[in-house]
Amino acid sequence: MPSRKALIRRPGPRLAEGLVTHIERSPVDVDLALTQWEAYAAALREHGWETVEVAPAEDCPDSVFVEDTVVMFRNVALIARPGAESRRPETTAVEETLAALGCSVNWVWEPGTLEGGDVLKVGDTVYVGRGGRTNAEGVRQLRAAFEPLGARVVAVPVSKVLHLKSAVTALPDTTVVGFPPLVDTPTVFPRHLPVPEEAGAHVVLLGGAKLLMAASAPKTAELFADLGYEPVPVDISEFEKLEGCVTCLSVRLRDLHA
Predict the structure, then answer these.
(1) What are phi and psi of 107, to 5 degrees?
(2) Choosing from 60, 103, 245, 248, which is the catalytic residue?
(3) Active-site residue identified among 60, 103, 163, 245
(4) Does a structural domain hold residue 258?
(5) How far is CA 115 from CA 187, 189, 210, 229, in A?
């Protein structure tokens, strides 16, 4: 059985009603979004990831952004408690799916709020954005869940974007990449590389030198290629209209039975 799985969730009919907080709303083509989502899922499979589809949540416009519902550390799942109340029903089916895969499941409890898009793992360091959707109690509960497993949890202020991973992600060599106008405190990261496009700050590590990234960041793709990486571009324009990025659309699971 493959040890690399990726949770994904099909966009629902109400996708165009998804929340926007830091950008102007623009019309979303739901049919095009579904086509883009299918291509995104295909790219994961083509690079060795078995996709596991969580049951749809058709009444939840933002449910395609499955990353926000859970944080994984090794085989332990911390089920999020989204800061946006309308997103809280999204977690039920995610919890059921992960339990069926054999994960150890924990929960964030009231009054804590935590969304997975605020959590960036770099080795055993877990950066967690403290901002609009994740509160101090959510950070405390994440620390309590993961520090006993060997994680080092570092809280990072987030004020210019929706989630921490809307501003920064990390390359395979642990360098954190970000678009400078949107990064609150780049000095918190030991190695930081500015990138020339907002969408270039978001990469999904597919394994080896391969980086899944948005087609809307060609200059950054060129930069990463110059550094020896292999960009795998996907068009996610309809999700970008809802402040989504390549990381939001999946949760990667590794070595669940380790």
Answers:
(1) -135, 150
(2) 248
(3) 163
(4) no
(5) 23, 21, 26, 29
| Overall domain count for the chain | 1
202 in catalytic set: no
- Counted residue by residue, the chain has a size of 258
Kindly tell me if the per-residue pLDDT of 20 is higher than 60: yes
Tokens representing 61 are 């416009």
- Reported as a single tens digit per residue, the pLDDT across 181-210 is 999 999 999 999 999 999 999 999 999 999
Residue-range definition of the domain harbouring residue 50: 4-253
- 198: phi then psi, degrees, rounded to nearest 5: -55, -45
Q: How far is CA 64 from the centre of its chain?
A: 11
CB 162 within 8 A of CB 168: no
Q: Is 192 a catalytic residue?
A: no
Q: What phi and psi values does residue 27 have, to the nearest 5 degrees?
A: -60, 140
For the domain that residue 56 is a member of, what is the CATH number? 3.75.10.10
Question: pTM for the complete prediction?
Answer: 0.96
Q: Mind giving me the DSSP string for 207-230?
A: ETTEEEEETT-HHHHHHHHHTT-E
